[in-house]
Structure formats: C-alpha cells, structure tokens
Design goal:
24% strand; alpha+beta
Length: 331
C-alpha cells in the first residue's frame, strides 16, 4: 500500500523560482494524500479555494499537508483524503522581498517655460522600490487571472503613467525649470505618493521613488552651463576675455584670418588698458599721502616760532634753524 501512496504523493513548491518573479501559482490543482509543502526563505504560500484565501503560511520549511496544513485551512478542516481521490486547491507562492527597479521616461516631457512657447523637452531617470503588501488585492486584481507576475510587468505599468506625474510635480509651485535637481527630493516624494495610490488597489505598495537626474537638450544644457560660468566669474567683460582666450587656445581662432588678428589686437588693447589703469591707480595712491601732508597746516613752536616739521620734506625739526634732512631754512 505504501507503494501506491508514494506514487500519488506530490510536492507543492515553487519549482522555477526567479528573483524577478513576484508570484507563482502552483499549476497542479490536485493535492494527493501524503503531499508535502515546501516554503523557501522569502516566500509565502497562500492556499486558495474557488479564488478565496483558505490559509496563508509564512514560515519557511517542509510541511505535511494532511497533518500540518489542512487543519489550519479555514473551510477545509474536516476534509479527509481518500486513497484514490485528492483535494483540488490552488497554491499561490508570493515573493516577499522588496524589489528595486530602474526607470526612465519613455519620451521627452515638454515642460512649460517662460519665453519658450513649445516648452522644454526634459527626460529623467531613476529608481523605484515596491513590494507586495495586500494579498487580497493582489489576488482580486492580478493573481486571479494570471499564473505568474514579473517585475517587468510592474515596470511597464509604472512607466506608462509616470510621465503625467513628472509633469505634475515639476510644474507644481513654480519650480526653477533650469535647476530641477535641487527640487528632486520634493518631486520624488510627490510622485511616490501618487504611484502608491495607483498601485495599492492591486496589493502592491511603492516603498521608494528616486529621481537620479534630469536631462535637458544640448542647447539648454549649454545655456545653463554658460549662466553658471557668468555667475562664478561675476564679470561679463572678464567672461568675454576668458571665452576669447579659450577660443584661441582650442584652435578655433588660429591662423592668419581677420578674426584671429582682430581678437589678438583686442586682447592686447584690453591688456594695455588694464595695465595703464592699474599704474594710474597706484600713482594716485602714492601721491595721496604727500598731498595730504602738504595740505595739512604745520604746527608752530610757540617760543621760537619754529615749525615742528620741515615744510619742504616733512622731517621733524630740532633746535636748529635749518632742516637736518634737506637744509631748508626754518626761521
């Protein structure tokens, strides 16, 4: 008799487990007497009968279905295995881990911008995290009609609605369209909340959403870089000089053409003007103390009416009638 018992015994398990598979439905609907249930780490086993949950088993290990599983099923506690008959039931295995998925915009999103009637086409990319948290919603919306569900299925579903959420949160509250990265945390948080509301009815929760980068068209990115250069230099004239120098150094102005000659002449004139301005400023700074000394009235000695400082060179005077430094007559 044991021969036949082994012949009809089944092992209920997730045979073709994949890291990117969210759930797997055991295809053999008939469980024979002596069957075993195997639950591996990171899996939950859900027994279904006519699409309704009979029991959920979360602890990993190997179980005898007749003695360890059947007594805990909600409506099948009194079920007795016959020798040649089995129990028809579905077993849904669910991957309990948190999945991390990369995403990217399918098409460029035209974001309204001042002075640009067509908007700015922007692309973005990043990651989102999700996991199954509601088995009833999962069965009602997805597992009831599918035998397996992959991460790629969720990614396709997310990216199909992601563009509208990006548009919503990028344009919200007048964010700086040319510096979206500084608002990426707020944008990511808002999108996560919206996506979670969309997915929660399917038994899936969005546990994280991250925008890694925003990508502008090359012309816009060049303009952003140039504006940043202006801000760092804080001087338009200086920026023009550096741009001209870079152009000559890169070879874009090399040769004997008129543009190169003109650029060289302008650079020389600008350099000479700067030198002259600096020299004039230094001369004025040096002359100022002497002019101030000459303009200041010299104090006089009350007894001999001799000045305390030489009116010619400014040297402090002594008891002599002539300056000890330049010989100027003091009285």
């Amino acid at each position: 008799m044991s021969f036949f018992r082994n012949q009809f015994a089944n092992v209920v398990e997730w045979q073709e487990f994949r890291d990117d598979m969210i759930f797997y439905k055991w295809s053999n609907r008939e469980i024979k007497k002596g069957s075993k249930l195997i639950i591996r780490p990171g899996q939950d086993a859900i027994f279904l009968n006519n699409g309704k949950i009979e029991g959920i088993f979360r602890d990993e290990g190997e179980y005898d279905i007749e003695s360890q599983i059947i007594p805990f099923l909600s409506t099948l506690k009194g079920f007795k295995f016959g020798f040649n008959s089995g129990m028809r039931v579905e077993v849904l295995f669910v991957n309990t881990k948190e999945f991390v998925v990369k995403w990217g915009t399918q098409n460029a999103i035209n974001i309204p911008a001042p002075g640009l009637p067509g908007g700015i086409p922007i692309r973005a990319n990043g990651t989102f995290n999700f996991k199954v948290n509601d088995y009833i919603g999962l069965i009602d919306q997805i597992a009831g009609v599918r035998d397996q569900y992959l991460v790629e299925d969720v990614r396709i579903r997310i990216t199909s609605i992601l563009d509208q959420f990006l548009m919503k949160w990028i344009t919200r509250e007048g964010k700086d369209i040319f510096n979206l990265q500084s608002n990426s945390f707020e944008i990511s948080k808002g999108i996560q909340e919206d996506l979670d509301m969309q997915m929660t009815k399917s038994g899936i929760t969005i546990t994280g959403f991250n925008v890694m980068s925003f990508n502008y068209p090359k012309e816009i990115q060049d303009m952003i870089t140039k504006n940043a250069s202006h801000g760092m230099i804080s001087n338009v004239d200086r920026y023009q000089q550096i741009s001209m120098t870079d152009g000559m150094a890169s070879g874009k102005m090399k040769g004997g053409g008129a543009a190169s000659d003109m650029a060289g002449m302008m650079m020389g004139m600008n350099f000479a003007n700067q030198m002259m301005n600096q020299m004039n400023q230094n001369s004025q700074n040096q002359a100022a103390p002497a002019q101030a000394a000459q303009a200041t009235p010299l104090p006089m000695d009350g007894d001999q009416k001799r000045p305390n400082f030489c009116p010619n060179c400014g040297t402090k005077t002594g008891p002599a009638n002539f300056c000890s430094n330049c010989g100027q007559k003091l009285i």
